Structures are given as structure tokens and as C-alpha cells.
Amino acid sequence: MTAPFTPKRTTEDYQALDAAHHIHAFLDQKALNAEGARVMVRGQGLNLWDNDDKRYLDGMSGLWCTNLGYGRQDLTAAATQQLEQLPYYNMFFHTTHPAVIELSELLFSLLPAHYSHAIYTNSGSEANEVLIRTVRRYWQILGKPQKKIMIGRWNGYHGSTLASTALGGMGFMHEMGGMLPDFAHIGEPYWYAEGGDLSPAEFGLKAARELETKILELGAENVAAFVAEPFQGAGGMIFPPESYWPEIQRICRKYDVLLCADEVIGGFGRTGEWFAHQHFGFEPDTLSIAKGLTSGYIPMGGLVLSKRMAEVLVEQGGVFAHGLTYSGHPVAAAVAIANLKALRDEQIVSQVKNDTGPYLQNALREVFADHPLIGEIQGTGLVAALQFCEDKATRKRFANESDITWQCRTFGFEEGVIIRSTLGRMIMAPALVADHATLDELVEKTRRAVDRTAQQLGLL
Ligand code: PXG
């Protein structure tokens, strides 16, 4: 355990200074300032403590990233050693360094064999920026420069930089100056909300075939790639029906459109497989990675390329005019190596698949299957969503569902658990090192938050 923590300033002081200097993510700043941000000061395992020493069980792995939990000495030691030996060097002008080389050797030993090359970044947004440029360059080299439209999905999330915002499907982000030409979107495979009378399998095919319609509308000769999260994260933890991904893959192959998986959330063990596309059984041409690559201890992301794409870029491409100062940063690479070794050598990914994942999924279904507020429970491994509904029989959703899930999240904080609210769903994605007792605590505290929400609505 870490030493007892002595706050340096009062929470009120921190909050006042925070309000004076920061624009926070995705929030009404004025409203936040009136309320005061929670000041988090330390973490251990899945536990976080705020400045007043209140403990929270972190059911979201930070922002879907602290896959190994907090307080890992092996990751700290890896960073310290690398900082002492070589805190910075780069991959420009004919140089490289051992940390990034060894990271790639390890990463590609964990990936399916048809991937061979990586371009490293500092974040998931940057990974997707690199994706867009790499895909366009790939088609240029092959003599098809007009193939540059990227198709994403409504409510997909691929980052907050300009092009990743345009690629994502958050309408309210597009409206704030976040749209660009040559991006298009299709619907999300959200059966609960949009499936109507169709079975999930029928709806999965229908949702996938929207891609074919969109490709034909735009002209296959103009479409570069389809990009999506294997399961949608920030947009509500939507698991597509099983029929969805095979059909998407068939359509991409038929029209010579690259299939790009955003694995920023799904990668590195979340579903019980190393990568989420393996859970859903399809074979993307590229993978965008970040978050769990370093368990969030230090920023790092990247774009993984199939051999087929890498061969074109390397053998036929000449100069690819692209590079970031911190691509493959040695300290980030050293932390990523320690992180991947721990996930592999402590059998954490297989434990999620065979033990803790099924344990959490069963517990959630036992507790919430008959709950009046919960219409659907989705998830696998250590990621799950609870769909809120007004009427279970008809799958009717509340008109003000975002307000209701936000209230549930607030109750969660009061109960000492951090779970995420999205449109009409509550999401959890605890660190992959969670044991049964911690998962019991997560489910029990979530139950209390959901019950309090249901009581407020007069449903319990
Ligand atoms: N792709 C996906 C699938 C993501 O979830 C990004 C790209 C962008 O990564 P960076 O590292 O640039 O943030 C993300 C990020 C949430 C939440 O509340 C999700 C993300 C970020 C912040 C909050 O669900 N995902």
C-alpha cells in the first residue's frame, strides 16, 4: 500500500484554482465551476481516493485505460529506468532506439500474424488522424487517389482532434465546427433502440447493409475505408448482433474498401481476447490502439497495419511525409512493454475470458434480469452495459434518458462507485485485475445506485 496521504491544499482551494484555469472536457464549464470538480489524489488496485480521503471503486478503469489498475510498481520501475537511461530519442532522420523496437517485437507476438507494422502516436485521437492519412496515402500509391472518403458510424467515437471528430459520429461535436469533407456515416447497430420487430440477427444484417447502400451512393471508387469500434464505447457500449461483423467484412471485401477497427477501448484484454475484433471474429486491415497499451500510466497510441498495407507503403510508397516528435517515445514504450508483459505473463487476459469475465456477466444478469428499470444487459469479459427502459415489454425508452442515467451516476458516486452514464445506458469497464470480491462490490454498489434511481422514478 502507498503511504498515508496528506492533502497539500483543501479541496475548496483546489476547486477554486481548477475553476480559474481549466476548460474541462465535454462539460458546461460554468455549471461545473458552481459545483466544484472532484479532486482525485491517489489510487491503488481498483480504488481511488479523493482529497477528503473518500474511497471510490473505479468501475471504469479511469477512462477505459487503467487495465492493470493503479499502483503497479513494475510499470513505475520501467518508466524510471528508461528515464535514467535515455529519456528521449526519436525515429526521425535514420535513428531508432531499443525500447520501441522491443515494444514492437512484443506487440506483434501478441497480434494475429497478418499484422506487421506500427506507427506510434501519443493518443487514440492521433492514432485515428494517422489512420486517415495512411489510408489515403495507401490508395494514392495504388493509383486510386480519388478513393478517400472515410465512412464511420453515427454515435461512433474516434477522438477529439478535427479529423477524428469528423470520422466519429457525434452530431453535437460536428455542430461545433467538427465536420470536414470526405467523411460519411451510417447508423449504429443498436438493436434495443432501433431493431423494431426484427430479431437481433435480422437487425444486424440490416444495419450492416446500410454500409453497402452508402458505398453505392458514394461510388465504391471514392470510398477508402469503413472505420468502427468493434463494440461501441463512448456512444453507449453497444454490442452489435453476431450477424453484423461478418456481413460488414463481406461488403468491405466486395467493394475493395479497407476495414479499420478502432481498438482504443476494446484492445488489450477488455473482452477476454487480446483484441475485440477477435471476439467478434473479423479481420480488420488496420487497428487503432491507445489506452490499455500502457494501462494509461503514460500516453501512447498507435496504428497497426496489416502486412498487405505495410508492403504497399514500404515497397512502393517512397517517402511517407508524416512524423510526430514523440512517436515511439522511449519512456512510453518501456511502460508499454512492462504492461504487455504483465498482461501476458500473469495470464490476465485469459483470466478475464475464463474466470472474472463470466463471473461479472453472470452476477449482473442475476441481479438485474428482473429489475424494472433494466431492459437489456450487454457485454462480455470485463465490459458491460445496463440499458434503462420505461417499459420492458415494448423496449420503450425514457424521453429524458440521459438525465436519468446521469442521476444514476451521481448516486453511484455517493455509494462510492464510479460507473459511466451514456445516453440511456450505464456502463462499467473495471480494471482487468479485478478479483471476485471486487466485482461483487462493483455489482452491489451499482445495484444500490440503480435502485435509488428506480425509487426516484417510482418504479421500486
Ligand atoms: N477511439 C476510441 C474508440 C475511443 O474511445 C479515442 C479513440 C480517442 O482517444 P484519446 O486518447 O485521444 O482520448 C477514444 C477515447 C468516455 C470516454 O467517457 C471515452 C474516450 C475518451 C474519453 C472519455 O467514454 N475514448
Automatic annotation (TrEMBL):
SUPFAM superfamilies: PLP-dependent transferases
An example Gene Ontology CC term for this record: cytosol
Annotated GO MF terms: pyridoxal phosphate binding; transaminase activity
InterPro entries linked to this entry: Aminotrans_3 (IPR005814), PyrdxlP-dep_Trfase (IPR015424), PyrdxlP-dep_Trfase_major (IPR015421), PyrdxlP-dep_Trfase_small (IPR015422)
Cofactor(s) required for function per UniProt: pyridoxal 5'-phosphate
Pfam families: Aminotran_3
Alphabetized CDD domains for the sequence: OAT_like
UniProt keywords, alphabetically: Aminotransferase, Pyridoxal phosphate, Transferase
Record family assignment: Belongs to the class-III pyridoxal-phosphate-dependent aminotransferase family.
Protein name (database record): Adenosylmethionine-8-amino-7-oxononanoate aminotransferase
Origin species: Pseudomonas segetis
Organismal lineage: Bacteria, Pseudomonadati, Pseudomonadota, Gammaproteobacteria, Pseudomonadales
